[in-house]
Amino acid sequence: MLSDPKTPVFPVRIVLKRTGLSAELLRAWERRYGVVAPARTKGGQRLYSESDVGRLSLLRRATLHGHSIGRLSELPDTDVASLLDETVGHRSDTPETAPGEDAAERTIRRCLEAIHWMDGAALDVALRRAATLLGPVPFAESVVAPLVREVGEQWHQGRLRIVQEHLTTATVRQIMSGLLAGLPSDPTAPVFVAATTSGQHHELGAILAAATAAAAGWRAIYLGPDLPGEEVALAATQLHARAIGLSIVFPIDETGTEREFAALASGLGSRIPVLVGGEGTRQLAGLINRFGFTPIDSLSGMRSYLAA
Known about the structure:
A hairpin with a 5-residue loop joins β1 and β2 (about 45). The protein folds into three domains: about 10-90, Orthogonal Bundle (Multidrug-efflux Transporter Regulator, Chain: A, Domain 2); about 105-180, Methyltransferase, Methionine Synthase (B12-binding Domains), Chain A, domain 1 (Orthogonal Bundle); about 185-305, Rossmann fold. It contains 14 helices and seven strands. α6 (about 105-115) packs antiparallel against α7. The strands form two sheets. It has a five-stranded parallel β-sheet with strand order 4-3-5-6-7, sandwiched between helices. A two-stranded antiparallel sheet has the order 1-2. The protein is globular and about 60 Å long. By secondary structure, it is of the alpha/beta class.
């Protein structure tokens, strides 16, 4: 499964780099307002969790927009995000609501605008607000999945830069990690393993697959991107997985993908079904069929398969 966002793993230097805070301000916020409570190593060094880093980043953005840290420190992250959303607003050339647009479409439009402007704060706020309002499964299916497809398509067309795609990935990964960790986990539930194969660095599809499986009652384990087929097979075998989810997007190296599929199939035999989703499934339909894998065209389709 994705690492628990509440596990303390980050030293101060990483926190300062990721949040933009100074060491002095971070120390003052902790002592005076108790905004986070870092753990300590045996040597007394502070360690922060992913949740701590997210909260500190959110608080910093809110204070930069004029809110008092004293007031903010008493609020949960969702309330801070709402305050920031109200303060930042949206750029004057973007209408609040387009004709016929629903809440999910409005969120996607705002996210795409934030991505184009490299506005990580606005992207984070828009996604967190939608996640709170919709809940994990509707959020993943109606907001994250279409947003990821559109970002991937625009990147493929050269309309987005690599850094914009990376900003999207980092933000969505952090939010989905928190949502996935918050879903109930039954240690006796069937295991679902999600990953991408070698050469596939775009990991959001696999993260979404893991979240969908977890919401369907499976014990979801996300292995990460760019893994050799034999490594995925080894992990799935040792974990006694009942299903594997692979995400394949552009660019596609058909020769390399065939080699990875062969290694995966060889390591698994016919014991574990392999579900393949993502924008690359159409191009690889023949290959997927030849290895006896199952193409999945949507998160709802995957949920139906796992529920059968």
